[in-house]
UniProtKB/TrEMBL annotation:
SUPFAM superfamilies for this protein: MFS general substrate transporter (SSF103473)
Biological classification of the source: Bacteria, Pseudomonadati, Bacteroidota, Cytophagia, Cytophagales
Compartments (UniProt record): Cell membrane
GO BP annotations listed: xenobiotic detoxification by transmembrane export across the plasma membrane
Major localization class: membrane
Keyword list, A-Z: Cell membrane, Membrane, Transmembrane, Transmembrane helix, Transport
Domain Major facilitator superfamily (MFS) profile: 9-393
Transmembrane stretches, start-end: 7-24, 44-63, 75-94, 100-121, 133-155, 161-183, 213-231, 251-271, 283-302, 308-329, 341-362, 368-389
UniProt-listed CDD domains: MFS_MdfA_MDR_like
Species of origin: Spirosoma validum
Protein's UniProt name: Multidrug effflux MFS transporter
A single Gene Ontology CC term: plasma membrane
GO MF: sodium:proton antiporter activity; xenobiotic transmembrane transporter activity
Homology family: Belongs to the major facilitator superfamily. Bcr/CmlA family.
Length: 411
């Protein structure tokens, strides 16, 4: 693979991975306008985010077997077309119920990008390069929070919130063109894999029996769901409590995205000296400590708007390091079932994200406490599961090292 091919593949896989972040981040500045236009509350509009996350969680479970059975591109084409049609449906929505339904359908189509991108990384790159490749992908993905809310804020002010979903549909059409002309096919269709429910569940069960996958999929799901609490609560906190405008909120969101971008690239250097396992343990410990200060300070009234931005920045710095390492460790044991593994891992993450965003909405009390409290719980829970899971992996590897080929990589 030439350097140019490497760059093009990373770029396309990165843009595929940005479909859902753009779909989430871009319409956040429009929450107040959507609530006003559809005659509903901010809490109800937040449920459209929860619906999107539920759709991603369920949809990834469907696409995993399809990507393994039919290859990578055919399901990609089908899912992205569904996404574009649902985006237009969102733009035409005249009630919050319709918007929530269209967001669910939009997620069911667009989530194919997340699963396919992760599976293609496993197809196209050696195991020892996966974590570094995911770091590069996250660099591309991390640009979206800098762009999407800002574009969404200006689009809402100039053209109305409906225009956001038209823009999303147009962006996806461009991504489809890039997939068709420049993305390698990856793993070929496997006609021996059945799509019958029993066979599909069997594939998932095979993946779940791998302790390395289960540990890091759960850890990754919990740890990376913390930003969903931020996504669900930040527009209300900054726009209603601190009275930031849609454009100002977009710039706040863009600034905080730097907390993800910079550590992502630091991760590439850390991997030269430390294992992914060691890095995740350190970053989750760091986030748990920062999370404790974040919730205590918010409860005690230590932070104004800028103080809260600063402590959120410190907390989110851990996300760009935890995510790619957890993903790499989850997928590393698989070749044949890489699509199913990617689907389960993504489903865990978005499922936790849906629960987290729903919790922030349910706990809404016109303060920042629900947002920061749920963020801290995510980090601490991830750390606890990591410690238990690492001990289990070591124990099983010592009992049966032949059947645990990845143990030596981790330990």
């Amino acid at each position: 693979m030439t350097r140019r091919q490497h760059f093009v593949i990373i770029l396309i896989l990165g843009t595929l991975s940005t479909i859902s972040p753009f779909s989430i981040d871009m319409y956040l500045p429009g929450f107040p306008a959507i609530a006003k236009d559809l005659h509903t509350s901010i809490a109800q509009v937040q449920l459209s985010l929860t619906a999107y996350l539920i759709g991603i969680s369920v949809g990834q479970l469907l696409y995993g077997p399809l990507l393994d059975r039919f290859g990578r591109k055919l399901p990609l084409y089908a899912g992205l077309v569904v996404y574009m049609l649902a985006s237009i449906g969102c733009a035409l929505s005249t009630s919050i119920e319709t918007l929530i339904a269209m967001r669910l359908l939009q997620a069911l189509g667009g989530c194919v990008g997340l699963v396919a991108a992760q599976a293609l990384v496993r197809d196209l790159f050696p195991v020892d390069q996966i974590a570094q490749v995911f770091s590069l992908l996250i660099l591309v993905v991390a640009v979206s929070p800098m762009i999407a809310p800002t574009v969404g804020g200006y689009a809402t002010e100039a053209l109305g919130w409906h225009s956001i979903f038209i823009i999303l549909s147009a962006i996806t059409a461009l991504i489809l063109v890039g997939i068709y002309f420049a993305l390698p096919d990856g793993k070929q269709p496997d006609t021996t894999l059945s799509l019958r429910p029993k066979a599909v569940l069997g594939s998932f069960f095979t993946v779940l029996k791998q302790p390395q996958f289960l540990t890091y999929a759960l850890v990754g799901g919990l740890a990376t769901s913390a930003p969903f609490a931020y996504l669900a609560g930040s527009s209300d906190v900054f726009m209603n409590i601190y009275h930031a405008s849609a454009q100002e909120y977009g710039w706040i969101f863009a600034f905080l995205s730097i907390a993800v971008i910079a550590p992502t690239q630091l991760n590439r250097f850390l991997l030269r000296r430390f294992s992914s396992e060691q890095i995740i343990l350190t970053t989750l410990t760091y986030q748990s400590i920062v999370g404790l200060f974040m919730i205590v300070g918010t409860w005690a009234g230590w932070y104004g708007q800028y103080g809260l931005i600063a402590v959120l920045f410190l907390f989110l710095c851990g996300q760009g390091i935890t995510g790619p390492n957890a993903t790499a460790l989850s997928l590393a044991p698989f070749v044949r079932h890489a699509g199913s593994a990617a689907a389960l891992m993504g489903s865990f993450r978005m499922g936790f994200g849906a629960i987290v965003s729903g919790a922030v909405s349910a706990l809404h009390n016109n303060t920042a406490l629900p947002m920061v409290g749920v963020m801290m719980i995510c980090a601490v829970s991830g750390l606890v599961i990591l410690l238990i899971g690492q001990r289990t992996i070591r124990y099983l590897a010592s009992k049966n090292p032949v059947d645990e080929p990845m143990a030596e990589v981790l330990l």
